[in-house]
Design brief:
CATH superfamily of the largest domain in chain B: OmpA-like domain
Number of domains of chain A: 1
Order of helices and strands of chain A: EHHEEEHEHEH
Largest sheet of chain B: 6 strands, antiparallel
Structural class of chain A: alpha/beta
Structural class of chain B: alpha+beta
Shape of chain A: globular
Shape of chain B: elongated
CATH architecture of chain A: 3-Layer(aba) Sandwich
CATH topology of the largest domain in chain B: 60s Ribosomal Protein L30, Chain: A
Radius of gyration of chain B: 64 Å
CATH class of chain A: Alpha Beta
CATH topology of chain A: Rossmann fold
CATH architecture of the largest domain in chain B: 2-Layer Sandwich
Helix content of chain A: 25-40%
Number of helices of chain A: 5
Strand content of chain A: 25-35%
CATH superfamily of chain A: P-loop containing nucleotide triphosphate hydrolases
Largest interface: A-B, 28 and 24 residues
Distance between the termini of chain B: 235 Å
Oligomer: heterodimer
Helix content of chain B: 55-70%
Strand content of chain B: 15-25%
Radius of gyration of chain A: 15 Å
């Protein structure tokens, strides 16, 4: 079975950990994220006929006080760039992070996730913002970690991207 | 006209010449055309670097090989170029060269280092801990005995470890390439552990490391150690319970190097497919080493029960033995202190006590003393030889028995001097004076304070009556003398053994008493001294030896009698002149006849040497008859 290292990257409290917590095999406590700066989880998916093990590096959220460790990105085959629809600045942080990641490890497949779709009424971004992101050729998926909405799809899409299909 | 003709002719010649030239050209092209094309082609190949290089590349390897087999010129020519190339390469990117040679150089360097420091002390703490303990002392002795360093002995005795699992992790991605686990070891998801291990390494390196090449090598959690050995593309992580031997890390390095050599290309191009790494599983499984201390076997209750019974029996036996020992010691002490008993041997044979020695007939009975101790009679074997003790109590008793003093006489023995008080008949005083000269334990006597009484008729009657009893005592003495045997241990020897002389002394004393009592009873004593031999040898010689033995005994008795001035057996003929020595000797010869019977009258049937020893002896026959007076003889 093919294994791929992927990272969960995004601003503080956008729901990275929530996105994975309901869908992955985990043995480590969330406290690792705040202590070591990362927690490792695992998810097995099937892309077409190809089974794939995604080793998820759930990185500590970026905010004005805390920057994630670039060394954790080494060897990453893809990443989920997570933002919060209710906080437009998280989109900006995500854009900045995407630049940093690309600088650090080069261009690898990623999915732009706008989380908290269950709070769509409180979203401060509109479709035109999303279209703007899509216009860059990026895959943008709206998810709800709370409802489990489109989370599986996000992993599958990233898996497919990493396999180049 | 001629000019015209000439011109015409020249023109024709030119035409002809031109025709010939074309023909020659044609002929030339026909004849050398192909060669010319070939030459042109060759020229083109020589002039074109591309074609020439291409052509040369086809044969350059063979050419180098051919030349190298002939001489060393190529190596000499290439050496500066290669050296410069390496220098430039190292200057540009040293990591590439390190990555390339590390699989080859790694094991050699590590082995050299391990060999160099192999004898060094591994753990100062352990050494100190064990230096002053009993265990440490034991190990130190072992180190001296085996001529090994003490630290090595400590390590050998304390090393207990088990490698529980080994990870092969791709350095770049942190993904697990292969994972092996020891039997019966519980593990968690290898992918996640591998990832987290990588993350922690990155965390530690980011947080604490100052150099690019520094890395986390060891983790310790409780009694578990995680050893991390890094290679160019992958690392091995061994999770070990306990303390591994110092060279275990070398084993890990060797495994890692082997894997890099085998899978170098695959590792470099790893893209998430760990399937090819199934081939290195064996290399990792070899790293699952373990060394266990010998477990103490649980001892079954039955064993303890048996041990208990054995201990109880041993204790009981010890108590019993101790009790017996003290009883026996007490008994022997009592015997030793008893007058008239001398213990010469005291030992234990076949579970029985064997005690031998000398015993005076008047001494306390050893059997009676034994009963008092509670010891069993059947456990004791006595071997007593008779003797006369000089204990004052016994001497006094013997004096009374022999002298039989009348009631008017009081005897006192003090410091070996016998004093008599009161009054007695002249005959009694005379007999007592003679007897006391031979009495062992009496060094002198004082009868000066003893008054002489005239015997009346009644006393004579009493004397007659007492003579009956003296006759009975004669018989008792006769039996005792006849039961006495003088042994000659050595074959053919006619010399009396030293230990037998004491027996003869006692015998002499018995003869003294016998002759005295016989005389009082009006009897005459004749003694036949009979010599014996064993059955070995001719009858003639045996008869001779036996006769000589009997004569030796008689001579000894006679000599002792004459030396001590004793009266025996002269007293049987009181009228005889005492000072007449020759006459006394003759009397002795008359009363003591010697006879040699050879092997004719053996005391014991000869089966063993011991029986033959018994038969080499002298015995005595006593005959007591009434005295025949000279008058009767004449009649």
């Amino acid at each position: 079975m093919i294994q791929k290292k992927i990272c969960m990257i995004g601003s503080f409290a956008v729901g990275k950990t929530s996105l994975v917590s309901r869908f992955v095999d985990s043995i480590f406590s969330d406290k690792y994220i705040t202590t070591v700066g990362v927690k490792i989880d695992k998810k097995t998916i099937s892309v077409g006929t190809q089974d794939m093990t995604l080793v998820l590096w759930d990185l500590e959220g970026e905010d004005e006080f805390q920057k994630f460790r670039v060394s954790y990105l080494r060897g990453t085959s893809g990443y989920l760039l997570v933002s919060d629809g209710t906080r437009p600045n998280t989109i900006d942080v995500a854009l900045k992070l995407q630049q940093e990641v690309e600088t650090a490890i080069g261009a690898v497949p990623f999915i732009f996730i706008i989380n908290k779709h269950d709070l769509i009424d409180e979203w401060k971004i509109n479709e035109s913002d999303i279209d703007h992101l899509r216009s860059k050729g990026w895959e943008v998926i709206k998810t709800s970690a709370k409802l489990g909405q489109a989370v599986e799809e996000a992993f599958l899409t990233l898996g497919a991207r990493m396999l180049g299909t | 006209m001629s000019d015209q003709n000439d011109k015409h002719t020249e023109k024709d010649v030119d035409i002809i010449a031109g025709q010939e030239s074309d023909q020659l050209k044609m002929l030339r092209s026909i004849l050398i055309g192909p060669e010319k094309d070939r030459i042109a082609h060759l020229q083109k190949r020589l002039d074109s670097p591309e074609i020439y290089t291409k052509e040369l590349s086809k044969v350059v390897a063979e050419a180098i090989m051919l030349r190298s087999s002939n001489d060393n010129k190529i190596a000499q020519v290439l050496e500066p170029t290669i050296a410069n190339t390496l220098k430039a390469s190292v200057k540009k990117d040293p990591k590439a060269l390190v990555d390339a040679i590390s699989p080859i150089m790694g094991p050699s360097i590590r082995k050299a280092i391990v060999n160099t420091i192999g004898g060094m002390i591994q753990s100062l703490n352990q050494t100190l801990e064990y230096s002053f303990s009993l265990q440490g002392l034991k190990w130190r002795l072992e180190a001296i005995r085996t001529k090994k360093p003490f630290a090595e002995i400590v390590l050998l005795n304390t090393l207990i470890y088990q490698v529980e699992q080994v990870f092969l992790i791709h350095t770049h991605t942190g993904l697990v390439l292969q994972h092996v686990v020891a039997k019966e070891v519980e593990t968690r998801d290898a992918d996640l552990v591998s990832g987290m291990l990588t993350a922690i390494q990155d965390f530690v390196k980011d947080s604490f490391s100052s150099g690019k090449d520094e890395s986390l090598d060891t983790l310790r959690v409780g009694d578990r150690n995680v050893l991390l050995n890094h290679g160019p593309y992958a690392l091995v992580a061994a999770v070990i319970r306990g303390t591994p031997p110092p060279d275990y890390t070398v084993l890990l390095d060797d495994a890692l190097d082997t894997i890099h050599v085998k899978m170098g290309g695959v590792l470099e191009a790893f893209d998430g497919d760990a399937a090819p790494f199934e081939t290195v599983r064996q290399d990792l499984e070899y790293c699952l080493q373990a060394q266990f201390a010998n477990e103490k076997k649980k001892i079954s209750p039955t064993f303890w029960a048996v041990i208990g019974v054995v201990v109880f029996l041993l204790l009981s036996w010890s108590v019993f033995s101790l009790q017996n020992y003290y009883r026996w010691s007490g008994y022997v002490k009592k015997l030793s202190n008893a007058p008239g008993i001398i213990i010469t041997e005291n030992e234990k044979k076949s579970g029985r006590h064997y005690i031998a020695g000398l015993k005076d007939p008047l001494a306390p009975d050893p059997d009676a003393l034994l009963k008092e101790t509670g010891l069993k009679r059947e456990d004791v074997v006595f071997s007593w030889k008779p003797y006369h003790s000089l204990h004052p109590e016994f001497v006094s008793l013997r004096i009374k028995n022999i002298l039989n003093p009348p009631d008017t006489v009081t005897l006192e023995l003090e410091n070996g001097i016998l004093s008599a008080f009161g009054s007695a008949s002249g005959q009694w005083i005379s007999e007592a004076t003679l007897l006391m000269r031979l009495m062992p334990g009496v060094d002198g006597f004082d009868f000066n304070r003893l008054g002489e009484t005239v015997p009346d008729e009644n006393e004579q009657i009493r004397h007659m009556i007492s003579s009956w009893s003296e006759s009975a005592r004669c018989n008792a003495l006769e039996k005792r003398i006849e039961g006495t045997i003088i042994h000659f241990k050595e074959k053919e020897s006619i010399n009396i053994p030293a230990d037998q002389k004491s027996v003869l002394h006692t015998l002499l004393f018995d003869f003294e008493k016998l002759f005295q009592l016989a005389r009082l009873a009006g009897k005459q004593v004749y003694v036949e001294i009979v010599g014996h031999t064993d059955s070995i040898g001719t009858e003639k010689i045996n008869l001779h030896i036996s006769k000589k033995r009997a004569e030796a005994v008689r001579e000894f008795l006679a000599a002792r009698t004459l030396e001590t001035g004793g009266s025996f057996p002269v007293l049987s003929q009181p009228h005889m002149c005492k000072s007449c020595h020759a006459q006394r000797v003759k009397t002795i010869q008359d009363n003591f006849k010697t006879v040699g019977v050879g092997a004719g009258q053996p005391l014991r049937k000869e089966v063993l040497e011991k029986d033959r020893e018994t038969n080499r002896c002298v015995t005595f026959n006593v005959s007591i008859t009434d005295i025949v007076s000279d008058k009767d003889q004449h009649e």
